[in-house]
Amino acid sequence: MTTAVEDATTGDGGGHPAMAARAESVAKAYGAGETRVVALDGVSVDIERGVFTAIMGPSGSGKSTLMHCLAGLDTVTAGRVWIGDTEITGMKDKKLTRLRRDSVGFVFQAFNLLPTLDAIENITLPMDIAGREPDPDWLRRVVETVGLADRLKHRPNQLSGGQQQRVAVARALAARPAIIFADEPTGNLDSRAGAEVLGFLRRSVDDLGQTIVMVTHDPVAAAHADRIVFLADGHVVDEMREPTADRVLDRMRRFDTRGRTS
Ligand SMILES: Nc1ncnc2c1ncn2[C@@H]1O[C@H](COP(=O)(O)OP(=O)(O)O)[C@@H](O)[C@H]1O
Ligand SMILES: [Mg+2]
Asked: Which of 2, 201, 209, 230 has a CA-to-CA distance to 53 between 20 and 30 Å?
């Protein structure tokens, strides 16, 4: 079976085959003149396939901007970006929209579910819109992985926040994207529901081979990742493998002493 993962590797070349996404010397500025803000200032990062990567850093350090640039939701001011082996820098809107639809999944802090649709309808909505048939075996595995099998006929208002975010995670997984981007996915959840959602993100990497990039400022959330990339003032300043919450907290404190954390 051809998956979006493979499709994304048959692009124009120039990417690295082991990478789900790449940024090379990416700069991003907003505004002009006196109001110009440099959100990213020469960021290079490789997002490895089948790995759970967290992006951390103080508020305003450029985490969301980096995610948006890597996901093709925003253009860069300088530098180059690849999704899989396909360079998206300078890509025409239509082609980029298609690549994003076929290869990228998103989970946001707000669950963004449609209230009139039940859980399974929300999960398959993006594929319905794209005119794609969900693979029933895959869909079953996804629903099991996120623990929603007995909630599929519930509407969002009949589900807890944690369950709603699990629906959003399942929706991102359903189309089997090459990469999932999650921006503060536990930001609206209490710690128990947050831990559940993080557990399901973790399982989707371990059991389904999913690639995930998660933006967070929470050391406990980041400890679920395999690798953390630390940003400060629009630069990559550090990296950590196999993080623990304590080690992450220590690293974040060093930002604090420089007065950069909000
Ligand atoms: N659309 C925008 N217009 C102007 N400035 C922006 C915009 N988006 C982000 N910024 C600025 O870019 C910097 C990085 O923002 P962001 O990537 O949201 O940081 P983070 O997610 O780490 O909190 C901040 O100074 C922010 O104010
Ligand atoms: Mg942000």
From this structure: 2
Q: Hey, whose CA ends up nearest to atom 17 of ligand 1?
A: 62
Q: Is 261 in the pocket of ligand 1 (CB under 6 A)?
A: no
For residue 204, give the CATH number of its domain. Answer: 3.40.50.300
Q: How many domains does the chain have?
A: 1
* DSSP for residue 61: S
CA of 109 to the centre of ligand 2 (A): 10
pLDDT, tens digit (0-9, with 9 covering 90-100), for 157-189: 999 999 999 999 999 999 889 999 999 999 988
pLDDT tens digit sequence for 99-120: 998 899 999 989 899 999 999 9
Cβ–Cβ under 8 Å, residues 106 and 185: no
